[in-house]
Amino acid sequence: MIRDIERKVLEKDDDLVAILVKAERLRNQQPQDSNKLYSWHEPEVKCISKGKARQRYEFGQKVALATTNRSNWIVASRMMENNPYDGHTLAATLEATQAVTGFEVTDAYVDKGYRGHGYTGSTRVHIAGSRLKNATRSERRRRRRRSAIEPKIGHLKSDHRMNRCFLAGLRGDEANAVLAAAGANMRKLLRRLFYALIRWLERTFVPSNARLIPLEHAA
């Protein structure tokens, strides 16, 4: 079909040339090639290896997230183009965190995928699995809290549309990552305001022997 189009079409416009280039790329790619075309309408889609038995690969763009250690608020959500190594995204993630919060990050708790990150800034990087003999109780608690970001990522995918982006291009992927994080923070904030309002109503209008029950918890 490619040869037939090239033979019959005398004047090729730019749109047709772009289509033929993608068709040639799709025809010539091999199973072991590193820069394969996975999506016709989104040529930027990359194959991301997860290393898990249930789901070995994901297709899309890599997103770097940073959350607070205590309350799990998302303070950075940045799309990383061209599927870089996790450790190489640490500097950009810390930079985005400082730009959003206005504070310098003193300690960063990361998983084992960030080994060999090469980061040379002032932030102390704590990698999961590395034990410290003289670690304090608060330090051990902070290290355990690192795994709290895993369910947060799952909620972003299932509840805030990060699992599939419907916006076009790399700029759409970048906007989707920021909007998903903002939506998660907004939902958490509204939930806290809701329960604060319930407690205020109980103290103000409800007798001491009664209690208001939110609809989502009512039988």
Describe the structure.
By secondary structure, this protein is of the alpha+beta class. The chain folds into 2 domains: 2-37; 49-189, no CATH class. It has helices at 2-8, 14-28, 90-101, 137-145, 149-159, 169-204; strands spanning 46-49, 57-60, 62-67, 74-80, 107-110, 124-127. The strands form 3 sheets. It has a two-stranded antiparallel ribbon with strand order 1-2. Strands 3-4 form a two-stranded antiparallel sheet. Strand 3 (62-67) and strand 4 form a beta hairpin. The model has no long low-confidence stretch (mean pLDDT 83).
SSE blueprint and pairings:
Elements: H1 2-8, H2 14-28, E1 46-49, E2 57-60, E3 62-67, E4 74-80, H3 90-101, E5 107-110, E6 124-127, H4 137-145, H5 149-159, H6 169-204
Parallel strand pairs: 5-6
Antiparallel strand pairs: 1-2, 3-4
Give descriptors for this structure:
219 residues, two-stranded antiparallel ribbon, alpha+beta
> What strand line-up does the widest sheet have?
1-2
Give the total of beta strands. 6
Count of helices? 6
Helix content bin: 40-55%
Distance between the termini: 63 Å
Rg measurement, Å: 24 Å
Mean pLDDT: 83
Uncertain runs = none
Question: Structurally, how many domains make up the residues?
Answer: 2
